[in-house]
Amino acid sequence: MFLYQLLPFLWAVSANADFFQFDSISNASTYYFNYIYCNLWEGECQPNQDDTTQQVPTRDLWAGFPQDYIRLLSQWYCSLGQCCESGDCRITNNITGLASDLQLKLHGQHLAQSVVLKAVQGFISNPESNKPLTLSFHGWSGTGKNFVARIIADNLYRDGVKSECVRLFIAPFHFPHARLVDTYKGQLREAIRDMVLRCPQTLFIFDEAEKLHPGLIDAIKPYMDHYDNVDGVSYRRAVFLFLSNIGGTTINDVSLDFWHSGQNREDIGMEDLEHRLRAEAMESQGGFAQSELMSGHLIDFFVPFLPLEYRHVKLCARDAYAARGLEPDEGTLDEVAKAMLYVPKEERLFSAQGCKSIPQRINFFLP
């Protein structure tokens, strides 16, 4: 039975035997070694300076196959127990878990908690959405943008950021050379198209989005627009996340104004930030602002990440210790928090480093 089910795929492969190019396999192996490292966001990624074949992997395996064979392969995949009665088991869409993680694990970001949950829940519950969901995360480094992207992936997909339905692009790593933007365009379009064909619901994360070339964003702009399909492929069940530091100054200024006026941080609303954040994004330097993504109003929500205060840094430190199975006392948490840099200097109000470096810093305080 197994062989019988596999025959259509084997026949299709033989008809497209030129797919198996050993140089492509070599490039893919090198790429995925780097990709897995970067996909976990655990350190600096070093781009290959001259080899464009390793920037954005494309899967020529599917490019030469008719839709009928892709469908047959999908049916075979499910026959092996990889799919559920409710659909593809790679996709979990655990909205309850998403709400819980945002509430318990994300500190000091009441706006991000509310907007992200509302946006994702609304998109998941509406299979007839007329466009993909496009979110743009803004704020200082270390305030939780990457962390929230990971929380979304963890709750929408069984394998989180390592799911084959999730793809992370880091602008300076995957697209380092402006002179190669035309090459990157083709590679990026093909990579996105391939994933959408293979997964009924996809997640694309663009980190350091402000460093993307405008032509590169415009090349994929149709995939985020209000189209039934693009060249016969529907992208309406895709989620696009753009993460950038754009708007950090505006967000910090608003937060500082609230603090100086004696208002609670939690009183900051989207009405205080969204229009200013959108305006700064439109006026900023770099390809993200110059792209048709902005002028075409295709971003559904601009999500602000507020600067973190001393108390939030302590909560991050507590979580980092708990992840190692440790229970620190208040004195230890204070020592970790005091080791961070804060601005304005005279008031030591906002952490200049956020929570990103906490896991590494606690190594200095372990016995």
From TrEMBL:
Signal peptide positions on this chain: 1-17
Q: Which Gene3D superfamilies match?
A: P-loop containing nucleotide triphosphate hydrolases
Origin: domain of life: Eukaryota
Start and end residues of each Torsin-1A C-terminal domain: 308-365
What GO molecular function annotations does the UniProt record carry, in alphabetical order?
ATP binding; ATP hydrolysis activity
A Gene Ontology CC term for this entry? nuclear envelope
SUPFAM superfamilies cross-referenced by the UniProt entry: P-loop containing nucleoside triphosphate hydrolases
Keywords noted in UniProt = Signal
Q: Which family does it belong to?
A: Belongs to the ClpA/ClpB family. Torsin subfamily.
PANTHER family in the record? TORSIN (PTHR10760), TORSIN-3A (PTHR10760:SF3)
Q: What is this protein called?
A: Torsin-1A C-terminal domain-containing protein
Instruction: Please give the organism.
Output: Coregonus suidteri
